[in-house]
Amino acid sequence: MEKADETSYLPGTSAAEHMSPAYPERAAWGTAQTLRAWQQEAINKYFELNPKDFLASATPGAGKTTFALRLAAMLRGQKTVEQVIVVAPTEHLKVQWADAAARAGIKLNPNYSNADRLSYGAGFHGVVVTYAQVALKPVQHQLLTQMKPTLVIMDEVHHGGDALSWGDGIREAYSSATRRLSLTGTPFRSDDAPIPFVQYMPQPDGTRVSVTDYDYGYGRALADHVVRPVVFMVYAGKMRWLTSAGEEMEARLGEGNTKDITAQAWRTALDPAGEWLPAVLRAADTRLSKVREAVPDAGGLVIATDHDAAKAYATMLETITGEYPALILSDDPGASARIDEFSGNTDRWMVAVRMVSEGVDVPRLAVGVYATSSSTPLFFAQAIGRFVRSRHRGELATVFIPNVPQLMQLAEQLEKERNHVLDLAKGAEQLLDAEQALIDAANREESASDALTTEYRYEALHSDAHFDRAVFDGAEFGGYAAVETPEELDFLGIPGLLDAGEVRNLLLHRQARQARRSAERQGITEFQPERAESPEALHRNLKEQRKLLHSLVGMWARVSGDPHGAIHAELRRVCGGPQVSQASVSQLQKRIDLLRKRLNG
After folding, report:
1. How far is CA 451 from CA 198, 304, 320, 443, 457, in A?
2. Domain membership flag for residue 7
3. CA distances from 179 to 88, 138, 150, 185 (A)
4. What is the three-class DSSP state of 167?
């Protein structure tokens, strides 16, 4: 990666002027770490435009904070601004921003509260606040901004659309700021809430698309070795649960079921009482041990849906590893200190609820377990961003996910970059292309699934897990392994230090090796991939399954003389499960197999 010139100074200043004691932030800037190539490029772009508003999008882990604070020091050194205000999503990030600013020679007060009115303490150059804090008293923050020429840095600016009051608050508070720098590290919002201070360009189809002044995506960051390569370990399994109507349901993760069945199967997998999650945690801990052979302080993070699940997962990890993990709960006043402590030690695991995804900056995190029901592109990108921050060239990140269509699609499209699209005329987001259409459909399905899991009563009965495949760089590897087999260990044992090219080659090699082993176990002397797969025809979707079942029922009716309804009732009695319209792929397959046996004599 090309490095920035360490001897370059503020525009229009000499080295002597730059290091003058009159501007201590200049001295700090001069001795700071060398900028990455993209950071210097973005700063150059900024001064080319010299704008009031500037939107920079950089993948999580690329170094947005360093870029923003270097730019802030330069603007202060030029006397363009005197005061710096940072708006962050969470309280924990306020402290991180203040610490980073101090290293850049800018003193920010992270403890400023609305009760302090217009005074944030002598010796500070500004404050760090949250979006919620600004929304409570926007007029006060407007007055604070108008005290001096001010640069406002809005971290993860998409949060400006989280609530109407948040967007209105920052718009009112910072409309009079001298300069505004908006940062984002994830795809923009999937709704129609406009983001304050973001420009939208009209399109021929009537939509408006957000305009970014500088982009630095995951693909380029990976090529620059700024972020780690991410390998997704995908686990499937059979799930059984009882509906409120008393029907026993059965489905496998990864089947082409309805969104409701998929949501229920997914929820069953994440149930602490089942066997799916413990098996995945054991596999993840095995992977972490392998990574720690090359990266001794590597840590793991389990992202849970809620507090109860997080506590249960922490207990599981204690059983597996012999040590209780760091448990991060959003209502715990000591959560920030616990995150900082974990970041600085060498403990193995941390467990947190899903809200922590954007508030955790622990560069040593190298293994993750995605044990939450959230599937929006925004959250997924934020969560994966916790693992991609690169410290040393060659470090590899591994994230374990369930085989759920929405997550599989997001994992395969990790490198895709998207803009925020508004259709003001229709009041709905427009679809730019087929990929965006699928992403938005996943968002809508998650909303339906969330409503289902909160309103639809059910009881988890059983779950098991098996390694399904690895996903890397949009490609899939594996598909022949089961849990705790040599094939699974082939993938869990990938070295913790590998370049992206080496990862792909090794995955291809291990895929071929495990396929041969699987074929040998089945007595196949000449390996044919299609013959080594599961004999169950689970590739068909529900529509095809139902059509085939109805056809077979018709054939059996002609043989037996029984009416169709009676045959369907007998199939339900023998094979279990609800009526055809509500049955899963697995349940329909059982009925299909039974009818085929009868028809074959």
Report:
1. 32, 18, 33, 13, 11
2. no
3. 17, 18, 6, 20
4. helix
Closest CA to 476 of 387, 388, 401: 401
How much is the CA Rg of the chain, to the nearest whole Å?
A: 27
Domain end residue (candidates: 195, 223, 251) = 223
Residue 559 sits in the same domain as residue 416: no
> What is the edge-to-edge ordering of all strands in the sheet holding 230-236?
326-328, 349-353, 299-304, 365-371, 397-402, 230-236, 466-472, 475-477
- How is residue 46 annotated by DSSP? H
Query: Domain check: are 204 and 326 in the same one?
Result: no
* 402 located within any domain: yes
CB 301 within 8 A of CB 365: yes
Best CA proximity match to 268, nearest among 461, 407, 404: 461
Q: What are phi and psi of 258, to 5 degrees?
A: -65, 165
Asked if 274 and 336 sit in the same domain, the reply is: yes
Shared domain check, 490 and 345: yes
Instruction: State how beta strands 365-371 and 475-477 pair.
Output: unpaired
Report how far residue 326's alpha carbon sits from residue 314's, in angstroms, rounded to the nearest whole number.
8
Which residue, 223, 245, 270, sits at the end of a domain?
Answer: 223
Looking up residue 193, the CATH number of its domain turns out to be 3.40.50.300
Q: In this predicted model, what pLDDT tens digit does every residue of 330-370 receive, in sequence order?
A: 777 788 888 889 999 999 999 998 655 555 678 899 999 99
Which positions ≥6 away from 318 have C-beta within 8 Å? 324, 325
Concatenating the DSSP letter of every residue in 87-111 gives EESSHHHHHHHHHHHHHTT--EETT
> Can you say whether the dihedral through the CA atoms of 242, 244, 245, 246 is positive or negative?
positive
5 assigned to some structural domain:
no
Shared domain for 511 and 412, answered yes or no, is: yes
At 388, list the tokens: 């991609």
**pLDDT value of position 50:** 94
Taking only the tens place, the pLDDT of each residue in 41-95 is: 999 999 999 999 999 988 888 889 999 999 999 999 999 999 999 999 888 889 8
Measure the CA–CA gap between 202 and 93, rounded to whole angstroms: 34
d(CA 256, CA 264): 13
Q: Tell me, yes or no, whether 313 and 457 share the same domain.
A: yes
* Residues in contact with 464: Cβ distance below 8 Å, sequence separation at least 6, in sequence order: 237, 238, 274, 275, 276, 279
Q: Which residues face 326 on adjacent strands?
A: 350
Classify 324 as helix, strand or coil: coil
pTM of the model: 0.69
3-class secondary structure, 370: strand
Phi and psi at 249, nearest 5°, equal: -105, 150
Are 87 and 152 in contact, with CB atoms under 8 Å apart?
A: yes
Tell me if 1 is assigned to some domain.
Answer: no
Domain range for 349 is 230-532
Number of domains in the chain: 3
Round to the nearest angstrom and report the end-to-end CA distance of the chain: 68
Q: Examine the domain organization and report whether 490 and 519 are in the same domain.
A: yes
